[in-house]
Amino acid sequence: MPWHALASQGHEVVFATESGTDAPAADQRLLDGVLLGQLGAAADPKALYARLLDDPAYRRPIAWDSVDVDSFDGLILPGGHAPGMRQYLGSVPLQATVGSFWSLGRPVGAICHGVLVLARTVDPRTGTSVLADRRTTCLTKPMERSAYLATAWKLGRYYRTYPAYVEDEVVAALDDPAQFTRGPRGLRRDDAAHDGRGFTVLDGNYLSARWPGDAYTFARRFTELLD
Tens of pLDDT along 129-157? Predict the structure, then answer.
């Protein structure tokens, strides 16, 4: 969704992966349906993902540690769960690149587990997380816990990327727990016609969101922030 929103407004979108050699790929289970064909992506995002696969920039990503941060106007940290995401969420080289970009004060957006990358990125000036003094949201504990409890009988720890909940680690990185907000209750997704249903938190140049159900709203608001 962020790719579509940005590209449709004429922005050049560059993708980055650990090595920069192979195109990234979405979790196939989320495309096909997590459990009994349910809990997966909706039809419109899946159609846009199919178009994304043909984007030359997507097929030729750059490496995390080769990003020239001064050349970019904005940064988006996408989310995702399951143990395979640890490659991204726990990458020290990626955190170094993110920290360098963060220091520029340009727009940064993070959704779902992507907020963990920022929570783990240390500001060398303070020795604390770059999020320490920011307001934020992320995948909430009720969302993560309910998804895990509903699917553990079949999928094990698919919905638990780490022993700690994402929300708990993010809150621990903040100066004050009151800086975190879960947003409205419920799991109503936004879409192209109702992107106002999504929930985001904007603090200066930093935009955060909770889960895929916020993706349309997150994409639109990040594009507005970049503009």
Answer: 999 999 999 999 999 999 999 899 998 99
Picking from 183, 184, 161, 164, the residue whose alpha carbon sits closest to that of residue 172 is: 164
Q: Pick the more confident residue, 22 or 142.
A: 142
Task: Judge contact between 82 and 161, C-beta under 8 A.
Answer: yes
Q: Is the pTM of this model over 0.70?
A: yes
Superfamily of domain 2-226: Class I glutamine amidotransferase (GATase) domain (3.40.50.880)
Say if residue 31's pLDDT is above 90. no
| 223: Cβ contacts below 8 Å, ≥ 6 apart | 2, 5, 6, 9, 11
Q: Is residue 174 within 8 Å of 132, Cβ to Cβ?
A: yes
Q: Where residue 113 falls among pLDDT bands split at 50, 70, 90?
A: very high
Domain ranges of the chain: 2-226
